[in-house]
Design a protein that fits this description.
Elements: H1 2-44, H2 52-63, E1 70-74, H3 76-81, H4 84-90, E2 97-101, H5 109-120, E3 126-130, H6 145-148, H7 153-166, H8 169-187, H9 193-201, H10 220-226, H11 230-240, H12 243-258, H13 266-281, E4 285-290, H14 302-306, E5 313-315
Helix pairs in contact: 7-8
């Protein structure tokens, strides 16, 4: 009886193991198929698919390739504050400029957008781009299309390594985990199916993003006129009627600019220098800009900016040198 019990127990156990093995192989095949499909989608989608502002502005530049030789790249601080017409007046018309500022763009995406445009706009000879805060994650946008659609393996490694090298202990752990999760979501197109379909079935209207002069510049006052929203208008009126708020922001900006106690992000500096050389190889001049800020974030990256070659940087950050930018 004992022998037969052991025999049948062994047979039963082997059958379970064989069933688990078959199930495991089927799961692996399924994962393989899903991975292959997503690899195809990942590499077939155009670089601009996840951001309508980029699509509209890129299309406008391609359709008018001979009209522009200079492009600004940055977030909303570029979009709202860099007027190409005024800039061109100060260069005695040697430049014809286009504002590629993107509202809500993550700071480090500036580098990625530059790489994309450098390859696709051969007639542009000058790029002026933001020197960004690399280790700046907007948790509000986590898991959204805007946050993850542009992630690529090279930038994933760059961002993770930057956090591990230069951030506090908590962020050394948290930020690489966030970047890994975001890269996985992007690679497997998690939560992006509807957005992909929307990209192909509902083309964007360029008029929404090109501004009054169709040169990419979209001032706040124009947007408030075109899209009046009571909450934002009230916030702006409160800001304009509260000079103490502006004075405090100016004070914080100056303190942050003068505080260089933070570590030098050598990884970011090396990446910026590589970008300069890549541009030179194509006969393109790349200039990084340190624009006016409203906080103390300077200390995180200002050291690297001032180590760039002088001919490849423009500094408008100081409230003392440029008080008009803080009025």
């Amino acid at each position: 009886y004992v022998v037969w019990s052991l025999y049948f127990s062994r047979v039963y156990l082997l059958s379970i193991l064989m069933g688990m093995k078959k199930l495991g192989l089927r799961l692996l095949r399924l994962i393989g198929i899903i991975t292959l499909v997503n690899i195809q989608i990942y590499f077939l989608l155009p670089f601009d698919w996840g951001e309508p502002q980029i699509t509209a502005k890129y299309n406008a530049l391609k359709e008018n390739e001979d009209s522009y030789n200079t492009v600004f790249i940055g977030p909303s601080t570029f979009l709202r504050n860099l007027n190409p017409q005024i800039f061109d007046q100060h260069t005695t018309s040697t430049t014809t400029s286009f504002n590629f500022g993107i509202n809500g763009m993550p700071p480090i995406q500036t580098f990625q957008v530059f790489d994309d445009l450098l390859e696709r706009l051969p007639k542009v000879k000058n790029f002026i781009i933001q020197y960004p805060e690399v280790n700046n994650i907007s948790l509000v946008n986590l898991h959204t299309k805007k946050f993850k659609y542009w992630y690529r393996p090279g930038f994933y490694r760059f961002l993770s390594e930057s956090a591990i090298r230069y951030e506090s202990m908590a962020k050394k752990v948290a930020y690489p985990m966030i970047h890994t999760m975001t890269m996985a979501e992007r690679f497997y197109n998690i939560g992006l199916g509807e957005d992909v379909i929307q990209y192909y079935t509902n083309p964007v209207s360029p008029e929404l993003f090109l501004g009054r002069e169709k040169n990419g510049y979209y001032a706040y006052k124009d947007e408030f006129t075109d899209f009046p929203e009571a909450g934002r208008i009230a916030a702006m009126e409160n800001f304009q009627n509260s000079p103490e708020i502006l004075a405090e922001r100016t004070k914080l900006s100056l303190e942050g600019l003068n505080d260089q106690s933070g570590p030098l992000n050598q990884l970011q500096l090396d990446r910026a220098l590589e970008m300069i050389e890549s541009a030179k190889a194509k006969g393109v001049n790349l200039i990084f800009m340190l624009q006016p800020r409203n906080g103390i974030v300077y200390r995180d990256f200002v050291k690297g900016f001032y180590q760039l070659p002088a001919e490849h940087r423009i500094d408008f950050s100081s409230p003392e040198k440029f008080p008009e930018f803080y009025d």
